[in-house]
Specification:
This protein has helices at residues 9-38, 47-72, 125-130; strands at residues 5-7, 73-75, 91-96, 103-107, 118-120, 138-143, 146-156. By secondary structure, the protein is of the alpha/beta class. The protein folds into two domains: 5-75, Helix Hairpins (Orthogonal Bundle); 80-156, Chitinase A, domain 3. A hairpin with a 6-residue loop joins strand 3 and strand 4. The two termini are 30 Å apart. The model has no long low-confidence stretch (mean pLDDT 88).
Length: 157
Amino acid sequence: MPEAQQLSQEAHDRLAAELEDLTTRGRIDIARKIEAARELGDLSENGDYHAAKEEQGKMEGRILHLEAILEKAEIVEVADGDPDVVATGMVVSVVYDGDDEPERMLVGSIEEQRDDVLVVSPGSPLGEALLGSSVGDSVSFEAPGGTLAVEVVAIER
């Protein structure tokens, strides 16, 4: 069982809606695909049947994953903390030493992922270094290639 995962209310609701969709519409759709493929005859050489069964397996795996996350999810309200200090659920812009371009990243669960930002886990070396920092702070963390440093240039809710 995974340990508690901190999620925003928005991410929790999105994951709960995905789970509901997969356990209702998703399962019905897959059952229809499997039944249609069975009607085609010999299952041993039926590509449609094997593809539908594989899709079913992936979907059931995602359902189990979502159930485990939601069962132990801890809802975190970003608004509760100091808006000038990095906390879980915030988007942080950092500049790596020797770089000019800032990178935007969300400090949180991969389930919080959005298209416009990278996600860094609060339990990762970079995530741990960023937590509690403020704009203008320079933090260091251990990476596989050695110690890296970043400067926090912006914090967004």
